[in-house]
Design a protein that fits this description.
Largest sheet of chain A: 2 strands, antiparallel
Radius of gyration of chain A: 29 Å
Structural class of chain B: mainly alpha
Oligomer: heterodimer
Shape of chain B: globular
Strand order of the largest sheet of chain B: 1-2
Strand content of chain B: under 5%
Shape of chain A: elongated
Low-confidence stretches of chain A: 124-148, 187-204, 235-264
Distance between the termini of chain A: 11 Å
Number of helices of chain B: 7
Distance between the termini of chain B: 45 Å
Number of strands of chain A: 4
Mean pLDDT of chain B: 82
Helix content of chain B: over 70%
Strand content of chain A: under 5%
Mean pLDDT of chain A: 63
CATH topology of the largest domain in chain B: Rna Polymerase Sigma Factor, Chain: A
CATH architecture of the largest domain in chain B: Orthogonal Bundle
Radius of gyration of chain B: 17 Å
């Protein structure tokens, strides 16, 4: 029996498992028809590979994007997390308020989950205090060997956010005066706050990012996108223009039109 | 090795290793160098801003590829809609999607393949691009696209068959 295209294709991709791989190899030695089809597919594969974007074709972009990122992202991270956020042009007060809200909600969360296995417990005064009431709480904590005895104050905001994030919560520290990129469609009104630098001759369609830089149409369109926790994108546009497309976009519900992959 | 997307060293390393891959993904899906540049930059900004922690650099890579692929597909869809609208007005046949500047010097086959890939439906295109230009295996692609491995296998093959057909029509297939 001869090999079908799908098997050959899988074989060429190097994805055919044993024992089929050996069987295909043996078959190709003897069957000239399959061998010739194999060569065709192999050539096709080489043609496709030859179209690969080469390193030198994107060397400029590689450098340019890195410069942008280094200037706008990574350079800042060398400072402490909070300092980084505060050094943002918004007033310190707003940042402090945001931090407080985060701490506060984190506290509520911790309290509600005090039996959680991952989260550190807020210290409970242990029996040692009863035994020796002259000890201050601090010294009790210092001598307490229980590793879980740490309080919220022992954690940086970054760690708290990390903990919440690890538990699947979508936590976002935002400064009020700064518009996030991932806003919903009617950006025009919200962007009005940011464009006060030059209120007069700005056409309606101009958008700004967090740093006040003007966004191109492409970037704006990118901003008009929602994504879920995995970073998968739910296009707002798609939602509005063609809701039925969204259903077909759902990767879970996607099935190959013809079910059997090995069908001849 | 744990990878922290907001950490300086991690970020630098991820950029070094993953940038060529997502640049290829963006380019081979959109076939527009400017759009690819914007998309890659956006993907890395999101990567950084999210402050995620990945168990390995591969996981970070998959995340970035997923985001890049989604941004690229969105771009293509939007372009497609714009093009349909424009074509309706102009009542012209679909033009070749390339401008002179984007056309990269290469051999003829390379150009034909790149143009043929643009004619693939987006689902086949994404899978083919991940397979042929991102050095990923079926399992990794399945993971990134959240589909089954056999689904990946079928789509890769279908994409190749369609390409074969398109290239044979053009008469450039060298065999």
């Amino acid at each position: 029996m001869c090999l079908d295209d799908q098997v050959l294709s899988t074989y060429i991709d190097g994805e055919l498992a044993e024992p089929w791989k050996t069987q295909v190899e043996e078959h190709l030695l003897h069957c000239s028809i399959c061998k010739s089809r194999y060569n065709q597919l192999k050539d096709l594969g080489n043609d496709i590979k030859s179209a690969r974007l080469r390193e030198e074709e994107f060397a400029v972009q590689r450098e340019r994007i890195w410069q942008y990122l280094e200037k706008n992202c990574v350079a800042v991270v060398k400072e402490r997390f909070i300092e980084k956020r505060l050094s943002f042009k918004a007033p310190v007060l707003v940042a402090a308020a945001a931090a407080f809200v985060i701490l506060f909600s984190a506290g509520i969360y911790f309290a509600a989950n005090s039996n959680g296995d991952v989260l550190p417990e807020i210290p409970v005064v242990s029996g040692q205090v009863d035994a020796d009431t002259t000890n201050s709480i601090v010294s009790v904590r210092a001598t307490d060997s229980a590793p879980a005895a740490m309080s919220l104050q022992d954690l940086t905001i970054e760690e708290i956010l990390q903990l919440l994030d690890n538990r699947g919560f979508e936590v976002d520290l935002r400064l009020k005066s700064v518009e996030p990129l991932t806003v919903s469609l009617p950006v025009i009104e919200t962007s009005a706050d940011v464009k006060e630098d030059d209120p007069e001759d700005i056409p309606e369609d101009i958008y700004y990012d967090q740093n006040g830089n003007q966004l191109t149409v492409e970037e704006v369109a990118i901003a008009e996108v929602l994504y879920d926790a995995e970073g998968n994108i739910i296009s707002l546009e798609t939602l509005e223009v063609a809701p039925e497309e969204v259903i077909s976009e759902d990767p879970v519900s996607e099935n190959p039109p013809e079910g059997n992959p090995a069908a001849p | 090795m744990e990878v922290k997307s907001s950490g300086y060293e991690s970020f630098k390393q991820v950029y070094k290793e993953v940038f060529p891959i997502i640049m290829r993904v963006a380019y081979h899906v959109t076939y527009n160098m400017d759009a690819s540049e914007d998309i890659c930059q956006e993907a890395f900004i999101r990567f950084f801003d999210r402050g995620l922690i990945f168990p390995s650099i591969d996981e970070a890579k998959y995340w970035l590829i997923r985001v890049t692929k989604n941004l690229s597909i969105n771009y293509v869809k939007r372009k497609g809609r714009e093009k349909v609208a424009v074509d309706k007005i102009k009542k012209q046949p679909l033009p070749a999607a390339k401008t002179g500047e984007e056309t990269v010097i290469g051999n003829e086959t390379c150009e034909m393949v790149r143009q043929a890939i643009q004619l693939l439906p987006e689902k086949l295109r994404a899978v083919l691009v991940l397979k042929e230009y991102s050095d990923l295996n079926y399992k990794e692609i399945a993971n990134i696209l959240n589909i089954t491995e056999s689904n990946v296998k079928v789509r890769v093959h279908r994409a190749k068959l369609q390409l074969e057909k398109l290239l044979n029509q053009e008469g450039v297939h060298v065999s």
